[in-house]
Amino acid sequence: MTQSIFQAAPLLITMLSVPLLGEKVGWRRWIAIFVGLFGVMLIIDPTHVQFDWELMFPITATVMFAFYAIATRAVSKTDTSMTSFFYTGVGGATVLTLVGVFHMEPIAPHDWPWMAALCACGMASHYCLIRAYDILEAVEVQPLTYLQLVIGALIAVIVFNENLTWNIIAGASIVVAAGLFSMFRERMRSKRLS
């Protein structure tokens, strides 16, 4: 459910990119945004879930990521990708060290290679995300993040042996379709302008 809630981030980013970055979003893409949001709500299935305060964590993470993406796009006009990458890494490491030092547990020697791989993959993906915001508009980058939902569902089924319910499958299909439509509309707009 956390991953499903986080899928609202592209919708928030696209909505926020209009007032905060001055990017253009046509009426068809607004419809796609709201259809995608409906798909996320279908996945969450609010009719069968009693509100739990723990849901505020993924909701807050979604809002914070949306503002992070907008800020990354805004500073990409003046800063290089490496500058953004450096300050994001230093800021994140500082905050997580201050929090993590109180919850630290010893790491087994055989887990260190996995930790190194996790760090390398995280750094590479974070740099690629910053670089994407440097090159493209936020509304062009965000539809690709809908793939997280599909990949997350596959990992849940294959690795954690979870069952996918009808509402998760239907909602994921709606979210991915809305994201792909949004990407398609952006490409059409770009071709018309060039």
Overview of this structure, please?
The protein is mainly α and 194 residues long. It has one domain. The protein has helices spanning 2-6, 9-21, 27-44, 56-75, 81-100, 112-135, 138-141, 147-158, 166-193. It is globular and about 55 Å long. The relative contact order is 0.18. The mean pLDDT is 83.
Features:
194 residues, mainly alpha
In brief:
With 194 residues, this protein is mostly helical. Helix content is 74%, strand content 0%.
Query: How do the helices and strands follow one another from N- to C-terminus?
Result: HHHHHHHHH
Radius of gyration: 18 Å
Count of extended strands: 0
Low-confidence stretches: none
Query: What helical percentage do the residues reach?
Result: over 70%
Number of helices: 9
**Beginning-to-end CA distance, first to last residue:** 41 Å
Write the layout of secondary structure elements.
Layout: H1 2-6, H2 9-21, H3 27-44, H4 56-75, H5 81-100, H6 112-135, H7 138-141, H8 147-158, H9 166-193
Organism: Brucella thiophenivorans
Pfam family, one: EamA
Keywords: Membrane, Transmembrane, Transmembrane helix
